[in-house]
Design goal:
The complex is a heterodimer of chains A (424) and B (168). Chain A contains 17 helices and nine strands. By secondary structure, chain A is α/β, with parallel strands linked by helices. In chain A, strands 6-5-9-7-8 form a five-stranded mixed beta sheet, with helices on both faces. In chain A, strands 3-2-1-4 form a four-stranded parallel beta sheet, with helices on both faces. By secondary structure, chain B is an alpha+beta fold. Chain B is elongated. The chains are: A alpha/beta (424), B alpha+beta (168). The structure holds flavin mononucleotide, iron/sulfur cluster (SF4) and FE2/S2 (inorganic) cluster.
Amino acid sequence: MANEVCLRTLDLERPWLLEQYQSRGGYEMLKKILTEKTPPEAIIEEVKMSGLRGRGGAGFPTGLKWSFISRNAPGQKYVVCNSDEGEPGTFKDRDILRYNPHQLIEGMIIAGYAIGATRGYNYIRGEFWEPYERFEQALEEARNAGFLGNDLLGSGFDFELYTHLGAGAYICGEETALLESIEGKKGQPRYKPPFPAHFGLYGRPTIINNTESLASIPMIIEKGGAWFADIGVKNSGGSKLFSISGNINNPGVFEIPMGTPFSELLEMAGGVKDGRRIKAVIPGGSSSPVIPGDQMMELNMDYDAIAAAGSMLGSGAVIVLDDTNCMVKILERMSYFYYEESCGQCTPCREGTGWLYRVVQRIEAGQGRQEDLDLLDDVAGKISGKTICALGDAAAMPVQGMLRHFRDEFQYHIDHQRCMVGVG
Amino acid sequence: MTITTAKDKTELFAPAIRAEIDRWVAKYPPEWKQSAVMGALMIVQDDNGGWLTTQLMDDVAAYLDMPSIAVYEVATFYSMYELKPVGKHKICVCTNVSCMTNKSDIIVEHLEKKLGISFGQITEDGRFSLKEVECLGACGGAPMMQIGKQYYENLTPEIVDAILEGLE
Ligand SMILES: Cc1cc2nc3c(=O)[nH]c(=O)nc-3n(C[C@H](O)[C@H](O)[C@H](O)COP(=O)(O)O)c2cc1C
Ligand code: SF4
Ligand code: FES
């Protein structure tokens, strides 16, 4: 049930080594595709059938994204992997890079073959030194084994793959900011359209996918799209890596089928620390609206179920908060993050994130005004949908979620100049 | 805008540094040397005890045939570049939500007391500096910090003491 796709080598000793990956059938799919000259369309069809949706947060169907590239257009095309992993609460791509880097490499080569790209870049966040070294070592092994370079296994297909290292900027996780960053510029998102499929890295057609999305590809090819789809549930194919953290006994990364009840995931993670009550869960990274604990205990971990509860599965980063947490304080910290990380390019985000942070901060500090909650609603509403990239929405959604479910806690802070949570 | 072309490129950096930068340059299309700017800045920063001087940024600009201002823009945008001196050991403590709810404040207080400095400062002997950082993608090991290239997870004040003692 668990660890069937991206973490399938985790039980091996030094699972990151080429020989270990190959002992589990690694690179066999690449060999098969290259020797049989599988039509690229058939690969894209398989990925479509798998129901794989982008694991970086937006959940866009991967196969569909690949089909937007005009394969036969002349000139360079690129495959770019997003290993920026900056959404607070998310720490799964780090494990793929550290423990199964070859599966990501194989996935990227297959993606290149499918869209007719001969070059790829993996953008790894600059703080991830250990994962970077692992990935570089794996690239070296793959190159020596003839899986990277020119005329792979005598097929006439060339593919080269390089790492680009970030240097600390959450916004570079946004796909067009990431492309700017590879081009040696500050990471400011581009207007869309044009989308990367038409105008991507160096102005060339580009697909950009999350680490987990790309690392899922070899297994989808090996066992078939239908196999992958069947692991999960309707509209949420496959298994998913959940990074679960917060007030729990056994935090970590769990690869489990989409649609698994949250209560089971919580149990795998050892339950709430010190036997305390679960107050709230942020189900899909810090941008996803909070869900009260009781409600969360009834939900399944898939796109539709979490969306029906008014939030998002996002990157699968689950932050569990027990009843010692003050929600005003939690929101203050999150709002500070978006304010800090806004690239400043558009006014609603640059100014709005500052407003959100300052107002939540004064409520936290016991200086809130009666009109502040309406003000927060108003500012959040003015950011949503009015910015160049989705960081604006990412800043507004947590505010809206907190006010929807924990308004009384904010009101209490304003009325009594202090927290209603004992330890707040 | 200044474009430094006066110096011969071989005069700009020591051969080992040049070789490292060239490794980055080789990863990108020949007409996109600029793509190597992030790697190059990190290399010269590490070589300079962890921070960038204007001279170093200008040298990187010259080496990669970029206007200096384009290099400054990059160096000021990304949080891992330092434009002022830092300690020999730059201690970066995450205070984002998962770390916060696992008592990162206790770690911060402990470090501040132990070292006698706050975020953004360096100890008098120059050995340590403290920096507050956003989520480092290791929330399963909260509270956590990074020193140099290394992550340290599941911290307690005692563990922090042992880690600092182990550093040169
Ligand atoms: C502010 C912001 C930060 C993002 N950070 C990441 C990230 O760290 N990793 C990631 O894979 N996607 C991130 N994304 C989503 C990417 O823009 C993009 O949708 C994704 O990389 C596409 O790959 P996928 O379809 O495989 O998910 C971010 C988006 C925004 C707006
Ligand atoms: S929404 Fe914010 S982060 Fe995104 S482009 Fe605008 S200012 Fe930059
Ligand atoms: S919140 Fe500290 S590493 Fe993620």
